[in-house]
Design brief:
The complex is a heterodimer of chains A (336) and B (286). Chain A is an all-alpha fold and 336 residues long. Chain A has 15 helices and no strands. Chain A is globular and about 85 Å long. The mean pLDDT of chain A is 83. Chain B has eleven helices and no strands. In chain B, helix 1 (7-36) runs antiparallel to helix 11 (250-277) and helix 9 (186-222) runs parallel beside helix 10 (234-241). The chains are: A mainly alpha (336), B mainly alpha (286). Chains A and B meet through helix 1, helix 6, helix 7, helix 9 and helix 11 of A and helix 6, helix 9, helix 10 and helix 11 of B.
Chain lengths: 336, 286
C-alpha cells in the first residue's frame, strides 16, 4: 500500500514537468507575445523592446525555457505580465473559491445522484425507475451555462432570494485568514458575511451539481443493479438482515467504487474546468482567472494556473486510487 | 427476437423495443433538416432589425419573441444550429478517423510505438477536456474553425484508446490468425477483418461523443471563443441573452432549450444504438 503510493508519487514530478513544458511550448508556438498584445496601442518599438527585455522575452527560447524550469524548481511562479501581481498571490486569491464551489457541487451531485440511483433499483416500481432514468439523461443533456442563467432568472430576478453574481456582497466587511471563507467567517464568528457568502455560493453549486447528478445517478443505478443480484446480497438477506442494512452496508460498499472514481475525476475537472459556471456567475475563481490569462496570452498566468490545476488533478486521481484500495481489499493484495 | 415476414409488424416490434431511441433519432433528424434548410424554413431574416418591435414577448408574429435589436428569436434559433452542428460533426468525424489510425497502429503493431502513443493519449486525457479545448483555441486564435479543431483534438484519445482495446483482442481471434496463416497481408487483415468487427462499439462511442461535442461547441461559443458576437448561434445567443435577463428572459430561454432538446435526442439515439449493436451492454447504462 505505502509502496504503491510512493511509486505513484514518483510519477508526479514527471507528469508536472511534461504538463509545464507542453504549456510553455504551446504558448510560444504562435508569433507575438503578451507584451505586444497588451501594450501594442501605447508603446513604440523601442519601448516594446525595453519591456520585452525586462521579462526576458528577447532571449533565445531555450534560455527562456531553462530559466522558467529553474525558477519553477524553486517554487517561483513569477509575476503576472498584465498586472505585475505575483502568481502565487493570485492562486491564493483564486484557488479557495473554486475549491469551495467544487465541494458544494460534489455534495449536491452525490446526494441527488446516489439517492435517486439507489431508489430506482430498490423501490420496485417501474414509474420511479422510469422517472430517475429520464431525469438523469435530461440532466446530462442540459447545457451548464444555460441552467445557470435560468436559475438566475428564477431565483435572483423573479424571487430575489439570491444575488446574481460574485462571491460575497459588495458592502460586507470580513477578515481574510486562509481565504477559505467557509473557515474564515466561522472562525471570526462573522455570521452576516457567512450568510451573504452562502447565498452567493448556492446557485453556482446547484448549477454544477444538477448537471452532473445525472452521471452519478446512472452510474449508481447500473452498479446497484449488478450488486443487488449478487450472491452475498442474497446471503445477507437469507441471514435475515433488514433490507435497509443490506442496501446501505452490503450493496453500497461495492457500488461505491465507480462512484468514487467518477466524483474524484469530476472534482479535478471542476478545479480547472469550472470556467463556464464561474463565467456565468462572475465568480472570482481559477476558471475565470485562467480564461482571462489565456485570452490575454499572459504567459505567467497560464503557466502557473495550468501547472497548479494539473497538480490538483493528478493528486485527486492519486487520492481516488488510494481510497479505492482502502474500500476494496481485493486490490490491496493484488498490488503488493 | 421474433422474425416477422410482414414489414409493418416488424416496425411495430422495433418500435416497442426502441420507442424512445427512435423518437430521439426522429427529433434529431428533424433538427438537422431544419438547420440545413434554414433559409427556406425561417419566417424572417435572422439579422433583420426592427428597433420599434424590440423585447417583444412571444406572439403569433414572433413565436419566440424578439431580442434587444428587434430581431426574430425563432429565425435566429433556426439558423443558430449551423455553427454548432457543423463544428460538432466535423470534430467527431475527424477525431474518429485520427483515433482509429492511432489505435490500430498502436494495437496492431504493438511494441514501443504502442507504448509511446498510449502515454501521449494519457497526457492528453489528464487535462480537463474543456481546459484543453480552451488552451488550443488560445494557441490557434479565436474562431469556429479553431473551436472545431480543439474539440476534435480533445476527443482523439477517447477513440484511440477504444480502438486499441478492441484491436488487441481481435488480433487473437481465430479468423484473424487463420487469415494470417493463409498468407494475408497486414493491410488486408486490418481492412477486411479488423475494421468491420470494430464498427459497432465505435458507432456507439461516436454518437455519445456527438452529444458531448454539441455541448462543448455551444459552451465555447458561449464564452466567446468561437463565432463573432451577433452571429445567430445557440451558444452566442444565450451569452448575449444573459444581459437581458431583467428585460427579456425569453431571449436566452429558447436557444438553450433547443440545445437541450438536441443533446437529449442524440443521447437517446446513442442509447438505442448501443442496445441494438452491443447487446452485452444492454443493461449497463453507463
Amino acid at each position: 500500500m505505502i509502496g504503491y503510493t510512493l511509486k505513484r508519487l514518483l510519477w508526479l514530478p514527471i507528469v508536472l514537468w511534461a504538463v509545464s513544458s507542453l504549456t510553455f511550448l504551446a504558448l510560444r508556438i504562435v508569433p507575438g507575445n503578451p507584451i505586444q498584445t497588451i501594450q501594442n496601442q501605447v508603446m513604440d518599438k523601442s519601448q516594446l523592446a525595453q519591456v520585452e527585455a525586462v521579462w526576458g522575452l528577447d532571449r533565445p527560447i531555450t534560455e527562456q525555457y531553462l530559466n522558467f524550469l529553474s525558477k519553477l524548481l524553486r517554487g517561483d511562479l513569477g509575476l503576472a505580465m498584465s498586472s505585475g501581481v505575483p502568481i502565487r498571490r493570485m492562486i491564493f486569491e483564486r484557488m479557495p473559491p473554486t475549491i469551495e464551489l467544487a465541494i458544494v457541487s460534489l455534495i449536491i451531485s452525490t446526494g441527488i445522484g446516489v439517492l435517486s440511483g439507489v431508489a430506482s433499483v430498490t423501490i420496485r416500481n417501474r414509474a420511479v425507475d422510469y422517472c430517475v432514468r429520464t431525469a438523469s439523461i435530461l440532466g446530462l443533456s442540459l447545457p451548464l451555462f444555460w441552467v445557470g442563467i435560468m436559475l438566475i432568472i428564477l431565483f435572483s430576478v423573479n424571487l430575489r432570494w439570491t444575488p446574481t453574481s460574485g462571491r460575497i456582497g459588495a458592502g460586507v466587511d470580513y477578515d481574510v485568514i486562509t481565504n477559505f471563507m467557509f473557515y474564515d467567517l466561522i472562525a471570526t464568528g462573522n455570521w452576516e458575511a457567512f450568510g451573504s457568502f452562502l447565498r452567493h455560493l448556492i446557485l453556482p453549486g446547484v448549477t454544477i451539481g444538477l448537471t452532473s447528478a445525472g452521471f452519478v445517478a446512472r452510474l449508481t443505478r447500473s452498479a446497484m443493479l449488478e450488486v443487488m443480484s449478487s450472491d452475498y446480497v442474497r446471503t445477507a438477506r437469507a441471514k435475515g438482515l433488514y433490507e435497509r442494512d443490506v442496501i446501505w452496508k452490503h450493496a453500497m460498499r461495492n457500488a461505491l467504487l465507480p462512484i468514487i472514481t467518477l466524483q474524484g475525476l469530476q472534482f479535478g475537472a471542476i478545479l480547472g474546468g469550472a470556467v463556464i459556471t464561474e463565467r456565468v456567475f462572475s465568480y472570482p475563481g481559477m476558471g475565470t482567472w485562467l480564461l482571462d490569462g489565456i485570452l490575454e496570452r499572459d504567459y505567467s498566468v497560464v503557466q502557473g494556473g495550468i501547472i497548479f490545476v494539473a497538480l490538483a488533478y493528478v493528486l485527486m486521481n492519486l487520492l481516488v486510487d488510494i481510497l479505492y484500495h482502502i474500500i476494496d481489499p481485493r486490490l490491496r493484495h493484488s498490488s503488493q | 427476437m421474433r422474425v416477422d415476414k410482414n414489414t409493418g409488424s416488424r416496425i411495430g416490434v422495433l418500435w416497442r423495443r426502441y420507442d424512445i431511441a427512435l423518437l430521439g433519432s426522429a427529433v434529431f433528424i428533424a433538427i438537422l433538416l431544419i438547420t440545413i434548410l434554414a433559409s427556406a424554413v425561417a419566417p424572417y431574416d435572422p439579422m433583420a432589425r426592427d428597433i420599434k418591435n424590440r423585447f417583444a414577448t412571444p406572439s403569433a408574429e414572433n413565436a419566440f419573441g424578439t431580442d434587444q435589436l428587434g430581431r426574430d428569436v425563432l429565425s435566429r434559433v433556426i439558423y443558430g444550429g449551423r455553427p454548432i452542428l457543423s463544428a460538432s460533426f466535423t470534430a467527431v468525424i475527424s477525431a474518429l478517423a485520427a483515433g482509429t489510425i492511432i489505435g490500430v497502429a498502436g494495437g496492431y503493431l504493438g511494441g514501443w510505438l504502442d507504448t509511446a502513443l498510449m502515454r501521449l493519449m494519457d497526457v492528453m486525457l489528464s487535462f480537463p477536456s474543456i481546459l484543453l479545448a480552451i488552451l488550443i483555441v488560445a494557441t490557434l486564435g479565436l474562431g469556429l474553425l479553431n473551436v472545431t479543431v480543439a474539440i476534435g483534438f480533445s476527443m482523439v484519445p477517447v477513440f484511440a484508446r477504444l480502438v486499441r482495446s478492441i484491436v488487441i483482442t481481435l488480433v487473437y481471434e481465430e479468423y484473424v490468425i487463420a487469415a494470417r496463416s493463409l498468407g494475408a497481408s497486414d493491410p488486408h487483415i486490418i481492412w477486411k477483418h479488423i475494421l468491420p468487427n470494430m464498427m459497432p462499439p465505435i458507432i456507439v462511442q461516436a454518437s455519445a461523443m456527438l452529444a458531448v461535442a454539441i455541448g462543448t461547441a455551444s459552451a465555447l461559443n458561449f464564452i466567446g471563443l468561437g463565432v463573432e458576437p451577433g452571429t445567430p448561434d445557440w451558444g452566442m445567443m444565450v451569452a448575449e441573452g444573459q444581459r437581458l435577463i431583467f428585460d427579456a428572459p425569453h431571449v436566452p430561454l429558447f436557444p438553450g432549450l433547443i440545445i437541450t432538446i438536441t443533446v437529449l435526442s442524440v443521447n437517446y439515439m446513442g442509447d438505442g444504438l448501443r442496445d441494438h449493436l452491443d447487446p452485452k451492454l444492454r443493461h449497463q447504462d453507463i
